[in-house]
Amino acid sequence: MGKGIFVTGTGTDVGKTYVTGLIIKKIKENGMTPGYFKAAMSGNEREEDGTLIPGDALWVKNVSGISQSVEEMCPYIYEHAYSPHLASRLEGNHVEMAVVLDNYRKVKEKYDYITVEGSGGILCPICFDEARIGLTDIIDEMELDCILVADAGLGTINSVVLTYEYMKNRNMNIKGMIFNHYIADNIMHEDNIRMCEYMTGLPTLAKVSMGDVDLNIDIAELISLYR
């Protein structure tokens, strides 16, 4: 069985998918067999025949070069760019924990290192009407540690520390932070990262700048995060 890690973010559009793609690419380029998984994916376009295209999964597959089929990557795909609980209310096919866990187990059986990406921020509800399922429930059931992805820019101190405190109170283990949209020698970005490290005690695992195609982290350190 493969090992896993959960990638969460301080909110929507901080670059979880971009960072996840780079993580998986790094592992593949070092001769291992990585896989990708996401419980629910919203905001997807349709093929001409009406079939939904799992955009995040397809992007990760293309940027990383993995052979995993997109059908394995995500059991619940929605068109509306809303939280999965609302998208499923409008479109049907609500998320069931048993289905998510069964699909994740199948991926673990085929791949060495599975990177599981969350939807939105850590409090994003995945299902609400038929059952109460949040990202924290999925992380708990999968028994995963987490990587926290944040934007390096203005406002990140507040969002990082609030996310950290919430996850700490839920006894969730965060292995470290990756800062996206990082600009080298930008005094605010450097200070934001320093303050986030000080206020959370978490290490910075990597800094990702716009257009980066590689993740600047030692491969041994990266795979040590998985369990």
Automatic annotation (TrEMBL):
It is found in: Cytoplasm. It comes from the Bacteria. The active site is at 38. GO terms for molecular function: ATP binding; dethiobiotin synthase activity; magnesium ion binding. Substrate binds at residue 42. GO terms for cellular component: cytosol. Transmembrane segments: none annotated. ATP binds at residues 13-18, 56, 117-120, 180-181. Pathway: Cofactor biosynthesis; biotin biosynthesis; biotin from 7,8-diaminononanoate: step 1/2. Its EC number is 6.3.3.3. It catalyses: (7R,8S)-8-amino-7-(carboxyamino)nonanoate + ATP = (4R,5S)-dethiobiotin + ADP + phosphate + H(+); (7R,8S)-7,8-diammoniononanoate + CO2 + ATP = (4R,5S)-dethiobiotin + ADP + phosphate + 3 H(+). Pfam families: AAA_26. Mg(2+) binds at residues 17, 56, 117. It is an enzyme of class 6 (ligase). GO terms for biological process: biotin biosynthetic process. Its cofactor is Mg(2+). Keywords: ATP-binding, Biotin biosynthesis, Cytoplasm, Ligase, Magnesium, Metal-binding, Nucleotide-binding. Catalyzes a mechanistically unusual reaction, the ATP-dependent insertion of CO2 between the N7 and N8 nitrogen atoms of 7,8-diaminopelargonic acid (DAPA, also called 7,8-diammoniononanoate) to form a ureido ring. Homodimer. Belongs to the dethiobiotin synthetase family. This is ATP-dependent dethiobiotin synthetase BioD. The lineage of its organism: Bacteria, Bacillati, Bacillota, Clostridia, Lachnospirales. The gene is bioD.
